[in-house]
Amino acid sequence: VQLQASGGGLVQAGDSLRLSCEASGRLFSTYGMGWFRQAPGKEREFVGHISRGGGGTSYVDSVKGRFTISRDNAKNLVYLQMDNLKPEDTAVYYCAAAPMGSRDYKYWGQGTLVTVSS
């Protein structure tokens, strides 16, 4: 599966932004999908995950209550809704796919830059 993330940009603190990740190929619904981010000078960090059917999500503590992951399996899309953005959310955001209920992310998108100004 190939992944293409989009929707990044420059926003102010407190703003909202929605990232999209489009998957090519079949069997999108068989992949759990994750979002990760990498801030300048830091290691890549797990942001959240959504299960294959969309019924289960998990998030890193720092984004709980502010970020929401959803997916549309009919359109091969997964979303990351980011509300109340903070400067520390500035990073390149990546989507990734993990097959068959695992958390082994085998496929990665190219990343989209989110910059939050204070």
Keywords:
118 residues; mainly beta; seven-stranded mixed β-sheet; 53% strand
The residue fraction in helices comes out at: under 10%
The largest β sheet comes out as:
7 strands, mixed
SS field, number of helical segments:
0
Order of helices and strands: EEEEEEEEEEE
Gross geometry: globular
Percent strand equals over 45%
Alpha-beta classification: mainly beta
Average pLDDT for all residues? 96
- Our Rg estimate from Cα atoms comes to 13 Å
Q: Give the CA-CA distance, first to last residue.
A: 37 Å
Number of strands: 11
Q: pLDDT below 50 for ≥5 consecutive residues: which ranges?
A: none
Commentary on this structure:
The chain is mainly β and 118 residues long. 0% of the residues lie in helices and 53% in strands. It is built from no helices and 11 strands. The strands form 2 sheets. Strands 2, 4, 5, 6, 9, 10 and 11 form a 7-stranded mixed sheet that branches. Strand 7 and strand 8 form a beta hairpin. The chain is globular, with a radius of gyration of 13 Å. The mean pLDDT is 96.
